[in-house]
Predict the 3D structure of the following.
Amino acid sequence: MPASPSAHTALVTGASGGIGRAIAEEFARAGTNLVLSARSEATLNEIAADWRARYGVTVTVLPTDLSEPGAPAALAGRVVAAGIGIDYLVNNAGFGTFGLFAQTDLEATLGMLRVNIEALTELTHRFLPNILARRGRILNVASTASFQPGPYMAVYCASKAYVLSFSEALAAELGGTGVTVTALCPGATSSGFQERARMQSSGFLKRMRLATSDSVAAAGYQAMMAGRAVYIPGFANRLMVFSVRFAPRNMVAALSKRVLAPA
Ligand SMILES: NC(=O)c1ccc[n+]([C@@H]2O[C@H](COP(=O)([O-])OP(=O)(O)OC[C@H]3O[C@@H](n4cnc5c(N)ncnc54)[C@H](OP(=O)(O)O)[C@@H]3O)[C@@H](O)[C@H]2O)c1
């Protein structure tokens, strides 16, 4: 049964699969109109047609490769040109690379920084005036990796530390404006992430039970709507994050190296 149509719109990046698609569906279920972005245009169009029919919401598809310089500005420009106001911004698009830093592909690594950090920062800056005017909310997808250095995923983990720090600071800056910023910090989650990162050999994955994208998205959506500054889904993940606070950083890095290393 579709919810009654709303005047609110959510822009979700990385909406073609995994956690982003599931977060976007939470909005659709609640009757919120959507702007979906990712590189996979055909997949986004299929999702859009399904949700228009199923949930009665307006869905606009704006395919974008956020690793391209200038892409966030172009995406924001297309939203404005379409006359769409944004109430909820979900900066979810992101990916990781697995392997020794010295051996990783530099272009892929720099592209990852553009998607995980630059695009998230630029989209937040460009949409913030609109979100402030509409007293909306921002959800940035960070990670449990935000809390610790991660050998074999050194740049990815550092990029997620940025997302957490940036989100917490912005949430504090925006206190009293009615706009909230939430950093969602999932642990290992079943999605396209592991294949893209080529991390099937990591001992970590062999030992972990992965959360589903749907459960992470539902928890993230609720945390955003409740205005939580930081939310870590799953008791085991919260325990892990809590315990590394008290350990020396070099010990945490050494332990992470053992955990993440190829099995
Ligand atoms: N899965 C995990 O274990 C885990 C844990 C903690 C945090 N996270 C974070 O959760 C977020 C979502 O990842 P996921 O697990 O759902 O992985 P996923 O299934 O691979 O989804 C990633 C999404 O980002 C999009 N994307 C990737 N590169 C892009 C680019 N250059 N430009 C625009 N969009 C791009 C992908 O779409 P296209 O391929 O169509 O572009 C896809 O929609 C990421 O920020 C990730 O770091 C994941």
In short: The radius of gyration is 18 Å.
